[in-house]
Design goal:
The chain has six helices and no strands. The chain has 115 residues and is mainly alpha-helical. Helix 1 packs across helix 2 and helix 3 packs across helix 4.
Amino acid sequence: MNTPLQAYTDLYGLLQSLEECKQFEIHPLKVARHYYQLSRETLAAHTLVSSSTIKRAEAGTPVSNYAIAQLCKFFSQQTHRQVQPHELGLQQRRSPGHNELEAQLLLVVEGKQHA
């Protein structure tokens, strides 16, 4: 079990690593995974997210809400604080039909403004 000092050291080290990854254009999720010495397969086993989804996320491809929640939960447990999706470079996949719903909502809102 980590002591508070070890948890702080881990968090500080991870945050430093994430800052450095911006300089070298390395995806933050990959940096976090390497920081904790995890293969994609090991991270997949811990999060119940497929290794191919992790690979896509590390390539910058949007992933499901489930994958984002599981990855954030895992790294939150490691750092003892709430890790946000943007900190891991995770992008949410838009659900099919999302654009149609947005368009319908916009029409409703615009209709009310003109009335």
